[in-house]
Each structure stands twice: as structure tokens, then as C-alpha cells.
């Protein structure tokens, strides 16, 4: 049990990190198991409210693949994936918009507000925040980002609110696009000039041996990534996830953290302690 003196010591140890991030933009890409488990969801939202209250400008960017799959199943529509991306016809695009920008986005806003935060929900269609075009013809309305307009996010931050952004894109003809949340988060973080980006996943970070959690690689520099790919350390679904982190760093984000969203208070541990918890990718 932590006594009052220990609590005070923890706060003092966090002070340099609070000072470091005060007034800076931190993008949190939220998804995976941390989004499905209700207790973890509340824990993550508490962490975000805490960071906001100590002066960090948190931008929460979320996906919601499992809930989209559930909704499609409820209406009798089977989910099909090509290269890890959901094949999205017009009906599926409507469901993506409804689930991401409606149910999930407003649910997170409501939860943040109930905990004591100030939050406003946005989607990529608001102010043409995410403009897109078809990524591949066979994927339908899966979008490749053409341009971003982060002014709506900056306006919400300036008013003292936490922006909660769902990754639905649009084009000038009024079409809706399903955008990969990792890709969108990296692009938005770069455009915002974020101090860092935190990506929540369902594993500890990048592991040298994917079956051994004790082989966590704590720091990866961009120059090391080709070798990690060639030797098979980066494989499967971790390759596109790390590539999004590389894109963020190349766009000016100082560092990107890949952390295990299943661990309570993972974001606080990563941002406000010496040890951290996951893998940091930096230039």
C-alpha cells in the first residue's frame, strides 16, 4: 500500500516530465484491447484527463475495427480484408462513419466529460481535416490521405478542450473513406508538430523475439529499422505499425512510443517516468 509520503515522492519524480510536456502537443493513438475492455477504457481516459489538467495538449486519435466488424455482422454483412485492410464498399463506408464518428467518438467524449475533462469530438470530415482518395481500386472506399487540415484540432486545443478524432476521410465529391488509424495518427501528429506520439497496441512494444516479452527493444533509431526488417525482428503486422511511426518522426515528431495499452496507466508510465514501458522510435 502506498502511503502519503510515497505518493508525494511519485509526484515529485514526475515533475520534470510534467514541465517538459507542459504546453506541448501529445498525440495518443488509441485502439486495440484498451478500447474494448471497459475498465481499461476508463483508466485510459482518466490518464488523458490528468495529462490535460497538468497542461499537456492531448489529441486523442482513435480507430475501432472490432466494433465496425460487430456492426457489419449485425446487419448481415461479412467483413473482408486484403493485406490487413478492410474492403469497403459504399454501404460499409456508411457503417464505418456511423460507428467511428458516432458511437465510438461520442462515447469517448462523454466518458472524458464524465471523468472531469473537457472534450470535443471531431472526424476527418470536419473542416476537411482528412482529405483522401482511393488507395487501391479493389479496396473500394479505403482512403489514402492526400491532404490534412489540422486547424480544427488547433482551434479545439486553443479553447482548452481535448480533441477526440475519428479517422474517417472525405473527398471534394462528398465521398466517405475508411482511413487506417495508425496512418492518420502519424500524419496528424506530424502536421501538428507534436512533441511525441503514443501508439497503444496489444503487445509490449517491439520484441527482438516475438514470443519472449523480456526481449523488448526500448529504443529504435530510424537508421536501425532496415536491419531489424531484414533480420525478421520486424515482421507481420508490426511492419506497417512501425512504418507509421517512422512517417511521424520524418514529419517532425520528436519521438514515438509503442506501448501496451492493456497495462493500466501505460501512457502515464511512458510519459512521466524514467523507465518508460514500451519501445521508443526516434531520429
TrEMBL record:
One of its GO terms (cellular component) is cytoplasm. Its main location: cytoplasm. InterPro entries: AceGlu_kinase-like_sf, AcgluKinase_fam, ArgB, Asp/Glu/Uridylate_kinase, Glu/AcGlu_kinase, NAGK-C. The record marks 29, 241 as: Transition state stabilizer. Its EC number is 2.7.2.8. It is an enzyme of class 2 (transferase). GO terms for biological process: L-arginine biosynthetic process via ornithine. Residues 24-260 form the Aspartate/glutamate/uridylate kinase domain. One of its GO terms (molecular function) is acetylglutamate kinase activity. Transmembrane segments: none annotated. The keyword Transmembrane does not apply. It catalyses: N-acetyl-L-glutamate + ATP = N-acetyl-L-glutamyl 5-phosphate + ADP. Keywords: Amino-acid biosynthesis, Arginine biosynthesis, ATP-binding, Cytoplasm, Kinase, Nucleotide-binding, Transferase. Substrate binds at residues 64-65, 86, 178. Pathway: Amino-acid biosynthesis; L-arginine biosynthesis; N(2)-acetyl-L-ornithine from L-glutamate: step 2/4. Pfam families: AA_kinase (PF00696). Belongs to the acetylglutamate kinase family. ArgB subfamily. Catalyzes the ATP-dependent phosphorylation of N-acetyl-L-glutamate. This is Acetylglutamate kinase. It comes from Candidatus Pullichristensenella excrementigallinarum. The lineage of its organism: Bacteria, Bacillati, Bacillota, Clostridia, Candidatus Pullichristensenella.
